[in-house]
Each structure stands twice: as C-alpha cells, then as structure tokens.
C-alpha cells in the first residue's frame, strides 16, 4: 500500500474527483434527472475510485503490460468531454434545482478532470525505462 499517495497532489485530485462526482450523482439522482446525467456521474465515481485503488495498492507497478497513467489521461480527457456536453445541457435546461446543482458540480468535476490530466501528463516519461530499474540491453 502506498500510504503517501492520498496526500500527494495526484491523490488529492483523485479523491476530489470522486467526491465531487458522488455529489453530482446524488444531486442528479435526488432530482430524478434524465438517465444520462445520473449514469455519467455514477460511472465517473466508479472509474475514479478504481484508478485511485490502482495507484493506492501499487497495482500499476505490478501490471506493467499497460501504461496506466496514459490510460488515466485518456479517461480524464474523455470524461471531460462528456462532462462538458452533459453538464452544459443540465445547466442550460435546469428542469429543477437538483439538475442545476448537479450540472454545476459536473462543471467543477470537468475542471478537476483537466487538472488530473495535466498532472498525469507531467508524470509520463516516454524515453525512460518503465516498471524496472534495469538498463536496456
């Protein structure tokens, strides 16, 4: 277990993403909004929690067959695009106050997704060895 990860900038952003996504999900679910709003927020909670656990348990080091930070960046960018579209519709249409609040939290989540993608992009090094500290032959 990487006990320092939850206190690192990436860990704090991941936890923030999960909490804000959960709040947006609860707002959308309480207001009985359309399924797309609720499903997007729920998927974001689950996927962010899984990536948090992946880094917390250091599984990204054990399963080195995939460049996990790159997959995480891809997830953050795709989530940001979907959040932009769906949450703008939620804020513009604002069928009730719960939908409006969920849309606003979704837009905050959009900013956190972009911050997460930038932090992860800074971490990736394409020219160095991955996984092991042994020199290439």
For this entry, give a set of tags.
single chain; 137 residues; mainly alpha; 2 domains; 5 helices; elongated; CKLF factor
- N-to-C CA distance: 31 Å
The biggest beta sheet is recorded as: none
* Unreliable stretches: none
Strand pairing plus helix content: what structural class? mainly alpha
Given the structure, what is the number of helices? 5
Q: Determine the strand fraction and express it as a percent band.
A: under 5%
Number of domains: 2
- Mean pLDDT equals 87
In total, the number of strands is 0
H and E order: HHHHH
> Which geometry do the CA atoms define?
elongated
Question: Layout of SSEs?
Answer:
Elements (H helix, E strand, L loop, with lengths): L8 H22 L4 H22 L2 H4 L5 H26 L3 H27 L14
Helix pairs in contact: 1-2, 1-5, 2-4, 4-5
Keywords: Membrane, Transmembrane, Transmembrane helix
Protein name: CKLF factor
GO cellular component, one term: membrane
Can you give me a brief rundown of this structure?
It is built from 5 helices and no strands. The protein has 137 residues and is mostly helical.
């Amino acid at each position: 277990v990487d006990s320092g990860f939850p206190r690192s900038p990436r860990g704090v952003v991941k936890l923030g993403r999960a909490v804000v996504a959960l709040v947006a999900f609860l707002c959308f679910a309480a207001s009985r909004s359309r399924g797309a709003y609720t499903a997007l927020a729920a998927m974001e909670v689950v996927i962010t929690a899984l990536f948090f656990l992946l880094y917390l348990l250091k599984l990204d080091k054990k399963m080195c067959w995939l460049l996990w930070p790159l997959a995480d960046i891809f997830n953050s960018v795709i989530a940001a695009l979907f959040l932009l579209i769906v949450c703008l519709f939620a804020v513009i249409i604002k069928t009730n106050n719960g939908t409006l609040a969920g849309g606003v939290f979704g837009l905050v989540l959009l900013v956190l997704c972009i911050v997460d993608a930038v932090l992860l992009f800074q971490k990736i090094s394409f020219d160095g060895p991955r996984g092991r500290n042994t020199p290439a032959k």
